[in-house]
């Protein structure tokens, strides 16, 4: 997909952006979303599509018509909802249908999967092991990942300070795969747990390389793909990834607090999860109500509680949109949009800079625009109808999600950034954050 040139007069630049939008084969998807203003925050929460809304209505009508019989009589039935949605998701992450399940929240899924694989690495019980190794993370992770891992270490009577190995960033923005490899070689690592895309800078990590390195050193490889699923194609099974977790309310537009997803390599089917619940039981005997847990022979074993059908329904509809567009086409457009945004930021005053890697192979779906007054600029943007978010210490995150964002939208963002900076318009806003960005 051709990226418009920025080496033109303002009028010609806008015309070039409009021409690129007119030639965009995905442009019509925008009409299927309710997009508030110039929306650049889809890496936090995607907007509502007609398909997602229809799916909610469909489940509500099934509830009205069938009540409890909906578990078996709804079309499709609710009993297999998590597995069915997992099968729809599987092509987006490069997995077999049985390797993906829709369940829980991202953090709950981190708890159960990290704990399960850590115990597996230690003969089934890290708490009983003589000398358990460490879980390998990095210092730019989303905080919830560390909270969960530390909690699971404490549950096993282990001091997280001794059993959590943290790879330090060299520049405060990115993590070098070579540093992860060095930590694997230096430390006794049982589980590597890394993000697919760093939430602040938007760096895309090399999942295949890190998985191979973990395997070479006898460690399981797991990933938090919250900021990449729906924006970046993955090949989890092909890379030999052991497990992964993610959410669906960002690039997959499944709604606030939507049910999450997970992947488990079929090599590990039949493993009893560290956090077992009845919805992960073998479906054929689940209602025998045995007190001994029999794990499903699929990723569905990692489900804990009953699938929240009303929270899962919007994902059902939203996935239809993403699958119709095609993940490869979405990635191509995402790269073109972020290329354009990077070029436009480069043309802004020197106070602005790009904190996201420029190479396509190292860039996710959003761009970290850095500025000393990033927080106040983000507030000024919102008052101009440009929805972004702020991340400490100096990042305005701009996510031109390809399903509903065009090149002219990106140009509008850049021009708003220039106007706010040159007019010192951000000075009208408080320096302190209100805590929600």
TrEMBL record:
Keywords: Hydrolase, Pyridine nucleotide biosynthesis, Pyridoxal phosphate. GO terms for biological process: pyridine nucleotide biosynthetic process. Its EC number is 3.7.1.3. Its cofactor is pyridoxal 5'-phosphate. It comes from the Archaea. Pathway: Amino-acid degradation; L-kynurenine degradation; L-alanine and anthranilate from L-kynurenine: step 1/1; Cofactor biosynthesis; NAD(+) biosynthesis; quinolinate from L-kynurenine: step 2/3. GO terms for molecular function: kynureninase activity. It catalyses: L-kynurenine + H2O = anthranilate + L-alanine + H(+); 3-hydroxy-L-kynurenine + H2O = 3-hydroxyanthranilate + L-alanine + H(+). Residues 1-29 are annotated as: Disordered. It is an enzyme of class 3 (hydrolase). Residues 10-21 have a biased composition (Basic and acidic residues). InterPro entries: Kynureninase (IPR010111), PyrdxlP-dep_Trfase (IPR015424), PyrdxlP-dep_Trfase_major (IPR015421), PyrdxlP-dep_Trfase_small (IPR015422). Belongs to the kynureninase family. Catalyzes the cleavage of L-kynurenine (L-Kyn) and L-3-hydroxykynurenine (L-3OHKyn) into anthranilic acid (AA) and 3-hydroxyanthranilic acid (3-OHAA), respectively. Homodimer. This is Kynureninase. The lineage of its organism: Archaea, Methanobacteriati, Methanobacteriota, Stenosarchaea group, Halobacteria. The gene is kynU.
């Amino acid at each position: 997909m051709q990226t418009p040139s920025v080496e033109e007069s303002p009028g010609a630049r806008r015309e070039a952006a409009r021409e690129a939008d007119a030639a965009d084969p995905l442009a019509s998807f925008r009409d299927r979303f309710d997009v508030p203003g110039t929306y650049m925050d889809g890496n936090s929460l995607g907007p509502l599509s007609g398909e997602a809304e229809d799916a909610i209505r469909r489940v509500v009508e099934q509830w009205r018509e069938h009540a409890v019989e909906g578990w078996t009589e709804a079309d499709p039935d609710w009993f297999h909802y998590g597995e069915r949605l997992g099968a729809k998701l599987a092509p987006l992450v490069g997995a077999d249908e049985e390797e993906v399940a829709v369940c829980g929240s991202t953090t709950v899924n981190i708890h159960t999967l990290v704990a399960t694989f850590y115990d597996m690495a230690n003969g089934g019980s890290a708490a009983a092991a003589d000398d358990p190794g460490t879980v390998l993370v990095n210092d730019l992770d989303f905080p919830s990942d560390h909270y969960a891992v530390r909690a699971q270490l404490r549950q096993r009577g282990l001091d997280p300070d001794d059993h959590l190995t943290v790879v330090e960033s060299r520049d405060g923005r990115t993590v070098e795969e070579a540093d992860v490899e060095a930590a694997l070689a230096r430390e006794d690592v049982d589980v590597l747990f890394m993000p697919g895309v760093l939430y602040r800078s938007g760096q895309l990590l090399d999942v295949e390389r890190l998985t191979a390195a973990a395997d070479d050193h006898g460690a399981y490889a797991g990933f938090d793909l919250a900021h990449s699923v729906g924006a970046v194609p993955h090949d989890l099974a092909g890379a030999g990834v052991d497990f992964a977790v993610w959410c669906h309310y960002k690039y997959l537009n499944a709604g606030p607090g939507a049910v999450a997803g997970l992947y488990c390599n079929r090599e590990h089917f039949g493993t009893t999860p560290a956090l077992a619940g009845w919805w992960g039981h073998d479906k054929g005997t689940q209602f025998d109500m045995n007190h001994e847990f029999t794990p499903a022979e699929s990723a569905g074993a990692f489900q804990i509680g009953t699938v929240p059908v009303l929270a899962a329904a919007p994902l059902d509809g939203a996935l239809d949109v993403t699958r119709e567009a095609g993940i490869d086409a979405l990635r191509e457009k995402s790269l073109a949009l972020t290329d354009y945004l990077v070029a436009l930021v480069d043309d802004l005053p020197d106070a602005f800079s790009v904190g996201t890697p420029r190479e396509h192979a190292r860039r996710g779906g959003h761009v970290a625009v850095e500025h000393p007054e990033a927080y106040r600029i983000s507030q000024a943007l919102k008052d101009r109808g440009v929805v972004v978010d702020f991340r400490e210490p100096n990042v305005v995150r701009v996510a031109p999600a390809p399903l509903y964002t065009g090149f002219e939208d990106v140009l509008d963002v850049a021009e708003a950034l220039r106007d706010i900076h040159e007019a010192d318009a951000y000075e009208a806003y408080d320096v302190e954050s209100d805590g929600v960005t």
